[in-house]
Amino acid sequence: MIGVFFALAASSLVARAVHLQVLNKEFLNQQADSRHLRTEKISAHRGSIVDRNGEPLAISTPVDSIWANPKELAAAADKVPGLAKMLDKDAQALMRKVTRSMQKEFVYLQRHLNPDQARKVMALNIPGVNIIREYRRYYPAGEVAGHLVGFTNVDDSGQEGLELAFNHWLAGESGAKRVLKDRLGRAVENVESIRPPRHGRELRSSIDLRLQYIAYRALKASIQKHNAESGSIVVLDIRSGEVLAMVNQPTYNPNDRAQYSAERYRNRAITDIFEPGSSIKPLILASALESGQYDTGSYVDTSPGYVVVGPKKIEDSRNLGRINLTTVLSRSSNVGATKIAMSLQADQLWQTMTQFGLGSMTASGFPGESAGLLTHYQHWRQISQATLAYGYGISVTPLQLAQAYAAIGNQGEMHDVSLVALEAPTTSKRVISVDTAAAINQMMEEVVRPGGTGTKAAVNGYRVAGKTGTAWKFAAGGYSEDKYLSIFAGIVPASDPRLAALVIIDEPTGDLYYGSDVAAPVFAEVMAESLRLLAIPPDALPARDANNVMQAMSQ
Questions:
Q1: pLDDT score recorded for residue 546
Q2: 218 lies in which domain range?
Q3: Is pLDDT above 50 for 171?
Q4: What ranges in 188-316 are assigned the alpha helix state H?
Q5: How many structural domains compose the chain?
Q6: Do residues 68 and 83 touch, judged by C-beta distance below 8 A?
Q7: Is 554 a catalytic residue?
Q8: Which of 278, 279, 287, 395 is an active site residue?
């Protein structure tokens, strides 16, 4: 009987083993896998943004995020206070977050911890608490390049600036793997790779961080000196259309999310529009020369120092009399520019402005870019054509106006604006003839020479061509008489233009508010250092004294 009993017991064990390991094997394996095998995300890092010389502007640094399975964590409620303390959170608030998510299998407890802190959390061995590797964006240049580079959200997706414009290029694609976990939810073995991660690609921007810092420093100092509301600087490579520097004030640090407000992070150089004042006059004279009605030897009679158009009286500071086109520009004669503009066909003037890119967006591709405002000539009144001559009734962005000046410096050919470093210049289109561009360039040189309005924009050792502008700001009920825009736009070196730049200071206070006093010195400072850093040779060195040369040779 004992033998039969043990035989039956052995038979039962064999039958049970066969049932578990043969007949029910697939079901049981599935049940085991469902309890211990998990699919985990393999985070892909975002591509870096660098300047044209490879200096980092935005990089991704590894961080760890803590997540939990709410059901498992709720079952170990006694562990929550210790977890909350480690995460610097309120225990009750953390528990409420867990209980509200009981129908889920995944909830973040804390995003973007440094790896050391995350390891301390995991050392608590709390059931249901897990760790996942992620990446956080860091911006080494801080507020110096903040407006241009932009920022990402907590999920590393571009929200502003280049981060948003090139999100498709920078963003990576997460991978997946299957892992074996123990009863506490800790991964103990990588079982298989389901999909490898695809990391984002590097973006080489057109910015030269050295020039960017120079422009940032000069603009910030000017804003503080004149207690101004805001300001912008744009520097373009005339030969390629690349943006070498673009800064704004006030600025923000993209590493500090507390500073993320539209007022601080919007890129004013691309999104904001303004009436350019007298800085538009080189384009008006270019239209006059292109029309064939004027040439470089033409004269305009500005007597008696004013002109009446409809109900408006347009005046100069004094009667300049009969002057040539160069004097119209160098002395910034509103009367002269108005008479020239009024003598042109409206469609001719409008076509020149549109050829220069006014009234339409550039090819920068920057999010939120404005097209400015240029009303079609069919809707112009007589006064519209008159005020256009000295920069009212038209609105442009700083980038648009800088691009127009770059076209003048590039012998009348305009390149598309690029925020990405180019291997070769983009295709260009002709906006004015070579002769007209050369004539305007020469006229603008007189603006910066003694007797012109832009002498403070002069750069020692270089010929500078440019134009000042001072515009009243539009306010409720008309134009304000105590709020101004100070502008200077120019190109250097004038003999062989390489750089075009625009400086705009919004609402300078105090006795100085003209573009010649506020914006022109900033232009001179930025261009002087930029030309030196780029090793662009001087084109206006003073003539050497022959006697000094002979003495030096004899020694």
A1: 42
A2: 209-533
A3: yes
A4: 209-225, 262-265, 268-271, 281-291
A5: 2
A6: no
A7: no
A8: 278
